[in-house]
């Protein structure tokens, strides 16, 4: 670190990196967006130029220049690179899901723990002010016995993420599933098991969760429905009635700034644990894997119904 500023390297130069990561990192007073590396150098150069950063010619070069790495790449790519970054002693901002499968997520979480570095997962809903107030009210009131969530969108049908290969390959469970599972878990208590999962050929998921305290919850997910704007809502119910939360569709930038505030503070104090750290990512990965085993993998033949012929 240079003084009190954390030098961060950004890996990836796609839509999410351009709209959230780069402006958030470059605009944060405790962070210097030092360098960008991406598979397509021209994309990295364009992004870096717009935010006063350098461009690295390799991931190894990026690691030599930074204290921390922010990832905006698919999970299968992120997991291997983040493993190397952790071994090099770099702090991590990870996308969700943190890896393509449980064994890889376990390997990454183990590397982070062994290195003693700080990690945060981009569970943006958890860093939103309205979400934190909602969760605080639920914790103070108690008595919640059930809940449900809906996340329905047409993200794969059009827009800036419709050309994302990994989203087409893995579907809603991997893309929005981590947000939904994480928030139900935070609202009602740790999820102990996936009690049921059903997935249609159009990648519409219906999930049932059993929580450690006896509560149950359900979720419906899709990113391949002609729904505009996105429906993303959460609710719980119990002895004190009903509490609902709707996602703020424009809240990603503010949530990322809040995440970065905490990231800088964690590094400054040498803190390596957080409710949304890599181990949270591993917990979610295990639940998603269980749902996948019950509901069926997203197969190539199914993608024809989403992508077209």
TrEMBL record:
Any Pfam family the entry gives: GFO_IDH_MocA_C3
Domain Gfo/Idh/MocA-like oxidoreductase N-terminal: 6-119
Keyword field contains Oxidoreductase: yes
Entry keywords, A to Z: Oxidoreductase
Stretches assigned to the GFO/IDH/MocA-like oxidoreductase domain: 164-241
Protein name, as recorded: Gfo/Idh/MocA family protein
Organismal lineage: Bacteria, Bacillati, Actinomycetota, Actinomycetes, Pseudonocardiales
């Amino acid at each position: 670190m240079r003084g009190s500023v954390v030098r961060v390297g950004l890996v990836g130069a796609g839509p999410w990196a351009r709209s959230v990561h780069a402006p958030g990192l470059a605009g944060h007073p405790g962070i210097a967006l030092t360098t960008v590396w991406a598979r397509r150098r021209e994309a990295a150069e364009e992004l870096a130029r717009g935010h006063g950063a350098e461009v690295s010619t390799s991931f190894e070069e990026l690691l030599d220049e930074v204290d921390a790495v922010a990832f905006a790449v698919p999970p299968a790519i992120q997991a291997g690179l983040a493993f190397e970054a952790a071994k090099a002693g770099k702090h991590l901002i990870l996308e969700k899901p943190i890896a393509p499968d449980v064994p890889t997520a376990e390997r990454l979480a183990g590397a982070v723990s062994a290195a003693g570095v700080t990690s945060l997962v981009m569970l943006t809903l958890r860093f939103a002010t309205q979400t934190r107030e909602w969760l605080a009210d639920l914790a103070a009131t108690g008595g919640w016995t059930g809940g449900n969530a809906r996340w329905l969108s047409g993200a794969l049908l059009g827009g800036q993420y419709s050309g994302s290969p990994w989203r087409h390959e893995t579907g809603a469970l991997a893309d929005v599933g981590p947000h939904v599972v994480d928030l139900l878990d935070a609202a009602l208590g740790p999820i102990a098991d996936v009690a049921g999962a059903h997935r249609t050929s159009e990648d519409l998921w219906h999930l049932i969760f059993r929580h450690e305290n006896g509560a149950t919850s359900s979720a419906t997910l899709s990113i391949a429905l002609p729904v505009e704007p996105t429906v993303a809502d959460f609710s719980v119910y119990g002895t004190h009635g009903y509490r609902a939360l709707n996602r703020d569709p424009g809240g990603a930038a503010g949530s990322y700034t809040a995440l970065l505030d905490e990231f800088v503070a964690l590094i400054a104090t040498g803190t390596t644990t957080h409710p949304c750290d890599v181990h949270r990512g591993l917990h979610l990965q295990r639940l998603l894997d269980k749902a996948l085993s019950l509901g069926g993998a997203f197969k190539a033949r199914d993608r024809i119904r989403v992508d077209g012929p």
